[in-house]
Amino acid sequence: MPGNMSLEKSSFSDKQTDRLLLAVLIAFTLFVRLYFLQMINVGPDEIDYWFSAKRLIGPGVYPDLMHRTIRWAIILPTAFFQLLLGTHPLVYYVVPVFNSLVQTVLLYLLGRHLFGRGVSFYAVLLFTAWPYMWRTGSQIRPAVFSLTYVLAALCLLFFYLEHGQDDSRRSRLCFVGSVLSLFLAYESKITNLYFLPGILIILLLRHRRMGPAIRYGLYLLGLYVIEHIAYFLAVGDPLGRLGIIAKNHLASSYADKLPKSFWGLFERYTIYLEFPWHLLLIAFVVASIYLLAKKKPWIRELTILHASFFFFLTFMVKSVKPIVPVEAFLDRYFIACLPTMSLVIVYALYELLPLSIVGELNRRGVLISLTAGLSVVMLLITALPMPKSIERFYTPLQQIHDHPIAKTFEFQHLIASAIEENIPILSVDTRKPLDTANRVFFDDPKKGRWARPIGRMEIEDHVVYYLDGIGNVPFAFDVQEGNTNVLWCDRFNFDMTMLKLREIPNLGDIYE
C-alpha cells in the first residue's frame, strides 16, 4: 500500500527512527520559533483573541460579539493556556509556539504515512523554516490554529482512506475525527471550508459511491446546525454566526482598493503577492505536474485538495456588480496549504535527487548534524546586514537585546514606572499601539489593574490617544517646550519608549 512505502532503509526499528526524527524536528521547530519570534502584532485581531480569553476565564465583561470574539477554536485554547500558565504577556507567545510543535508532529505523521519518513522529514524543515511561518508562528491569529486543525483533519482523512474499507472502530473514529477537526478549522477561519469540496470528491473517487461523501457532509452540516441553533438562542440573530460576521467583517472596507473585475481576481497571485511566494507556488505547480505525470500515489488526492482550496480562494466573491472578493489579497491566506505544498515539493525533489537530498537517514549523527548545521546557517545569515524588507521577519543577531522576550520584560517595567510616577501613557495618530499596551501589558488582574478607557484629544493636526487617569495629558501639552516625560507607544514594530513629548516623531512639527 502507498501509505506503507519506505523510501529509505533504516538500521533502527521504525518506531526508534520515527522518534529520533521527531525529536530532531521538534528541537529544530522550537529553535526557529523562539529565535525568530516576532513582537506582538498591533491588532486588533491578535489583541481581541487574547483579551477575549482573559475575560472568558476571569472577571470583567466579555467584549461585544463580532467576527473575532466568536472564534472559539482560537479563544478557548488561548484561555486554557491562560488558566494553566497565567496571563503574563509571555504566555501570549506560548500559544502559537505550542501550535507550531503540534504542526511539526502532524505534518511528519501525514508525510510519513503518504510518502515515507525521508520526504516528511525535509517537508517539515521547509515548512518550519519558511520565513512567512516565522510571523505566523509568533502571533495568536487564525492561521496558526487553522494549520493545526487542517493538518489534523487531513491526517485522519488519509488514514481513513487507506483503512476505511475495514469498517473497523478505528477507521470510523478517524472519519468522525476528520469531520470534527475540519469543523474546528472552520471555527478558526471560515475559508478553511474551501478544502471541503476537495475532500468530498476524494471520498467519492476512492469509494466509487456517494455514501461516505454524503455522510461526511451531513456530519459537518449537523455540527453547523447545532452551532446555529446555539447562536440563535443566545443572541437571537436568525443567521446565527453568519449574521454576526456579516455585520462586521463582510461590511468592512478592506476591498475598497482591490480590483473590481473578473481578471482582477488573479492579481492575488501577481502584483499583490510577494516574490518568495511566487517562487514557492511555481515550484509547487511544477512539482505537482511532474508527480501527476509519473502517477505517484496520493498526488491525485493532494492535487484535488489544493485545487479546491485555490479555486474558492480565488473566485469567492461577496458581490458581482462590482466584483468584490470575500477575502483581501494577503499572502497569509496561502498558509493553510503550505504544509501539503511542502510535501509535494520535497517529494518531487526526492524523486529527482534521492541520494543528494536524503543521504543516510539511518545515522543519528547525520540527522543531528544536518539540523544543527541548518540552525547555525540561519544564525549566521541573521548576523549579516540585510535589507529592511527581510529584517522585518526577525530580530538580527546583533540586536538580540531587542528580542520580543527581552522587550516584554522591559515594557512591563516601563508601565510599572509610568504608574508609580503618574506619567502619561499615549500614542499619536493611531489608537492601536496604545490599545495593545492597554489590554496586553497594562491589564493585569493579579496586580489589580484592568484595561482602562482610552481618551482622545486633538493637538493641532494630530490626534493623541491616552490611558485615562494616568498623568495629566492636557497639562502635559500645555508645556510648550515639550519637556514632559511620557510613555509613548509606537505601532511599527510595537514598542514602548519613555521620552519627552518633543521627541515623539509624530509630533516633530509642533516642537520645531
From TrEMBL:
Membrane-spanning parts: 20-37, 72-94, 114-132, 144-161, 181-204, 216-234, 275-293, 302-320, 332-353, 365-386
Record has Transcription regulation as a keyword: no
Key word Glycosyltransferase present: yes
GO CC, one annotated term: plasma membrane
GO terms assigned for molecular function: pentosyltransferase activity
InterPro entries reported in the protein's UniProt record: LipidA_mod_glycosyltrf_83 (IPR050297), RgtA/B/C-like (IPR038731)
Topological type in the membrane: Multi-pass membrane protein
Protein name: Glycosyltransferase RgtA/B/C/D-like domain-containing protein
Taxon lineage: Bacteria, Pseudomonadati, Spirochaetota, Spirochaetia, Spirochaetales
